[in-house]
């Protein structure tokens, strides 16, 4: 004998009735879920970025970036030459600043992620007392370089950089990389080292140690262009040891690039010990003791253990913005290193 339960309208709701209604409700729920899924996928397909190369997402965004870039370039002296070097992967913007010892191999600077040549502004004067300096806007990053072909892996990364360096008048250079630029420098030293006299890596990311989970998590909202500007400013300040970034020309340039440029680059992968051991070049690794990009102790130890011709220096109080915090000390260490590397 089944037991019925009285409903509000005076009817009865028994177990058999519920079992008959449940499939109908389930079908309606599945139908609406399917409709919503189709709408969501359609909306994603309508707005997704399908370009295989890095690019600015709008003409207005590009114009805003150019204004920020030009303001940041005002902190540099007038370049002695502006070069647009053609490679299989696009046109690479390079600036030359004439410095000391023009008969010796120059320094070629590679900036960090979402950055460009102006990030070297605080270092250039002291470096020019040592050598002529070239600065490179990385291909596939915000800047004045223009990517035209997909860069799919580390081999492609090395190939375009090697092609660009081969177009310089000097047969060999000392490659100076900051953050992801340090990774790019070591990637070239591993894969195509014939244009290199040495490598200098300033707190290189994903090179000698993995990126901490906290840094990866914090970087996600900062990398979404339509999220608030304050989120990117907070991330950039955090990586710089809490230094203010508002109303700083180079920081504004970086934030504008993060907001308006869509990168299509492969994620850098940390090099294996076996690959690092193949590098037969002098390498100066300057590690920031307070860096959020890696465990600085692990990075220093691994550089010493794997590189046969390494000089490893740790600046204990430096953040990942090491180049702006210790420009004179970096120049002195580079000068001493180059005396032996030439």
What does this protein structure show overall?
The model is unreliable at 1-21 and 37-47 (pLDDT under 50). The chain is α/β, with parallel strands linked by helices. The protein folds into two domains: 5-47; 55-341, Rossmann fold (3-Layer(aba) Sandwich), CATH 3.40.50.1820. It is built from twelve helices and 13 strands. A hairpin with a 2-residue loop joins strand 4 and strand 5. The protein is globular, with a radius of gyration of 26 Å. The longest helix has 33 residues, at 15-47.
Topology of helices and strands:
Elements: E1 5-6, E2 12-13, H1 15-47, E3 55-56, H2 59-73, E4 81-87, E5 90-97, E6 107-110, H3 121-128, E7 133-136, E8 146-147, H4 154-166, E9 173-178, H5 180-191, E10 196-202, H6 213-222, H7 229-239, H8 249-260, E11 261-262, H9 273-276, E12 283-288, H10 296-306, E13 310-315, H11 322-325, H12 327-341
Parallel strand pairs: 6-7, 6-9, 9-10, 10-12, 12-13
Antiparallel strand pairs: 1-2, 3-11, 4-5, 5-7, 5-8
Helix pairs in contact: 2-8, 3-12, 4-5, 6-7, 7-8
